[in-house]
Amino acid sequence: MPQVRVRFAPSPTGVLHLGGARTALFNYLFARHTGGQFLLRIEDTDKERSTEAFTQAILEDMAWMGMRSDEEPVVQSSRLSAHREALQQLIDSGKVYKCYCTPEEREAARQKAEAEKTSYQYDRRCLGKPEQPGVPFVWRFQMPTEGETVVDDLVQGRVVTPNSELEDLVIARQDGSPLYNFVVVIDDAFMGITHVVRGKDHLSNTPKQVQIYRALGYPEPVFAHLPLILGLSKRLRSAGLGAYRDAGYLPSAVSNYIARLGWSHGDQEIFTEEELIEKFDLADVNRAEGALNLDKMAWLNQQHIQMTPPEQLAALLVPFLQKAGFPEMSLDHPRLLPAVATMRARASTLVEMAENCRFYFVDDDALEIDEAAKGKHLTQEACAHLRALADALASTTEDWTEAGIETAVRQFIAAQNLQLKHIAQPCRVALVGAPKGPGLYETMAVLGPASSVARLRLACSHHNP
Ligand code: GLU
User: Fold this and answer.
1) DSSP result, 31-51
2) Under a CB-based contact definition with an 8 Å cutoff, are residues 249 and 349 in contact?
């Protein structure tokens, strides 16, 4: 097989949503799996709806997911002269003709077909018409009328279209500016694309494009049309990747999730990025539509949070902590890495994790204590224990490790004739502000001796003896 060259060809008329990201990802994984090339083409010929801001946003979202074009992205609008040359080639070989029909005439024909309950197809009334100087026109491509066009789609299987059903489509405006079905063929051929992998919504365009490949004498690529993505509301389905990033999803979890929309490898659910590359093959893409499921996505995100090494997770968490009220947060904050290590198993998004980690980073005297927990756990009796514990810990600070703290606490409860249950929850409420959180000793280890002792004392200041 010649080297695989695939492309993702977004139109910068909107943000990158999950469906688009999945198309990009399947192209990317196929390229990496086969040792081929993954390319990007910005299809910006719709000048009215395309913007530079959308182009940048799409590139950023792709970079967030770890996908970069192996070559300089091709910008479709910069290739106009090549498109015009290809049009000239078709004019010279008599494969296109001028259509002088007005939009009103076409609309009337469409309405007539609708009234007669037949499907509308342009009736070639301008084919062979004499030149009409000065009358506006568009270029139509003359499709064959006999035989059929066969596409052996890697996902959809053999798709046979009778040529009589292929409309003579408009491929360029009068000024030579080309339209989608034409330009996509010219640019894919120019970029040496071997496999066109895209959404199934383009399947019906494919036989038309195949005829254009043949008319231009270009080699035909292999096609793979991915199943559509259903489920969720249209709003959520079309939400940009940025919405998932801001909601605290990890790029590796998003990749894992969308890879499984239409592709499977046995019954494996969790994949690292390396495993996706190793195991992905277009041959394993299913024809069945994939349905989005946010619960599943949150579950996968949680799995990926647990799988991600603390250093990497800490870097991903920093912007979320900055947003959660710690604008100065940075990777070198001494509590960040140990805090992440203790919280990793407990959150399904980075937003949740940042929220859960707040108590580690607030000033000791600014820690808010849940009122109900205060009433229940910080009783006068418990506070007497906590104050005594604070005094005991204040003098055992030299071995401030989880094990050292545990030893000190156990010695304290033995000396006081207490049991752990008498102080565990009060302690946690004093340190965390709520009756939940990581293990007591690990929490204290992260907070350090000064903060731990201060929090135990501060929490009980309402019961001053
Ligand atoms: N620009 C087209 C789209 O966004 C891409 C079509 C194709 O991949 O051929 O749908």
Assistant:
1) HHHHT-EEEEEE----TTT--
2) yes
Tell me: the pLDDT tens digits for 336-386? 999 999 998 889 999 999 999 999 999 999 999 999 999 999 999 999 999
> Measured between alpha carbons, how far is 189 from 193 in angstroms, rounded to an integer?
6
Q: Is 221 in the pocket of ligand 1 (CB under 6 A)?
A: no
Is residue 30 within 8 A of residue 280, CB to CB? The reply is yes
Q: Say what the pTM is.
A: 0.90
Cα-to-centroid distance, 102 and ligand 1 (Å): 28
Instruction: Give the Å distance between the CA of 11 and the centre of ligand 1.
Output: 7
Mean pLDDT (whole number) for 268-286: 96
| Tokens read off for 318 | 């920093």
CB 139 within 8 A of CB 133: no
Average per-residue pLDDT in the chain?
94
428: amino acid identity, one letter:
R
Closest atom, ligand 1, to C-alpha of 8: 8
Look at residue 412 and tell me whether its pLDDT is greater than 80.
yes
Across 103-131, average pLDDT:
90
In sequence order, which residues have a C-beta less than 8 Å from that of residue 395 and are 6 or more positions away? none
State the pLDDT confidence band at 396, using cuts at 50, 70 and 90: confident
Phi, psi of 287, deg, nearest 5: -85, -20
Q: Is the pLDDT of residue 100 over 80?
A: yes
pLDDT digits (tens, 9 = 90+) for 215-243: 999 999 999 999 988 876 777 777 889 99
Domains along the chain with CATH numbers:
5-72+228-297 (3.40.50.620), 76-180 (3.90.800.10), 308-361 (1.10.8), 364-459 (1.10.10.350)
Instruction: Based on the residue annotation, tell me whether 234 is a catalytic residue of this protein.
Output: yes
Distance 184 CA to ligand 1 centre (A): 8
Does ligand 1 come within 6 angstroms of the Cβ of 202? yes
Residue 456 exposure: Cα atoms within 13 Å on the Cβ side:
26
Indicate the top mutation candidate among 16, 196, 198, 226 to test ligand 1's pocket, ranked by most ligand atoms within 8 A of CB.
198
